[in-house]
Amino acid sequence: QVQLVESGGGLVQPGGSLKLSCLVSGGIFADYSMGWYRQAPGKRREFIAGISIGGSPFYKPSVKGLFNISRDNAKNTLYLQMDSLTPEDTAVYYCKREKIGSTPELWGQGTQVTVSS
């Protein structure tokens, strides 16, 4: 059974940084594109960043240059480095393993990020 477990969330002051991790157990991590999404209170879940099987990143325009997505296939782990955080970045952050053919997408349980002074 494949599981995605996020970690690294917490409370940070405006302007601060956090690095989120997503450990994927089961399956072959390297075979899948991965993504980070977030959902703020009262809002829909939104895409933030994705990374291809080959390691090419792509971002929601508003976070480009502030957030950095990466992957370590040897550790079955996806990362999201977030810098210059603002209160608008407060949300639950989810990692997602993208679908391939008939293999469905999979989500982690989420990790809370709160940006507040």
Which spans have pLDDT < 50 for at least 5 consecutive residues? none
**In terms of quaternary structure, what is this?**
single chain
Radius of gyration: 14 Å
Number of contiguous helices:
0
Helix content: under 10%
Descriptive notes:
It is a single chain. The protein is built from no helices and eleven strands. The strands form two sheets. Strands 2, 4, 5, 6, 9, 10 and 11 form a seven-stranded mixed β-sheet that branches. A four-stranded antiparallel β-sheet has the order 1-3-8-7, with no helix packed on it. The model has no long low-confidence stretch (mean pLDDT 96). It is an all-beta fold and 117 residues long. Strand 7 and strand 8 form a beta hairpin. The radius of gyration is 14 Å and the shape is globular.
Features:
single chain, 117 residues, mainly beta, seven-stranded mixed sheet, four-stranded antiparallel sheet, 11 strands
Summarize this structure briefly.
The chain is mostly beta strands and 117 residues long.
Lay out the secondary structure.
Blueprint lengths: L2 E5 L2 E3 L5 E8 L8 E6 L6 E6 L5 E3 L7 E6 L4 E6 L8 E7 L8 E2 L3 E5 L2
Parallel strand pairs: 2-11
Antiparallel strand pairs: 1-3, 3-8, 4-5, 4-9, 5-6, 7-8, 9-10, 9-11
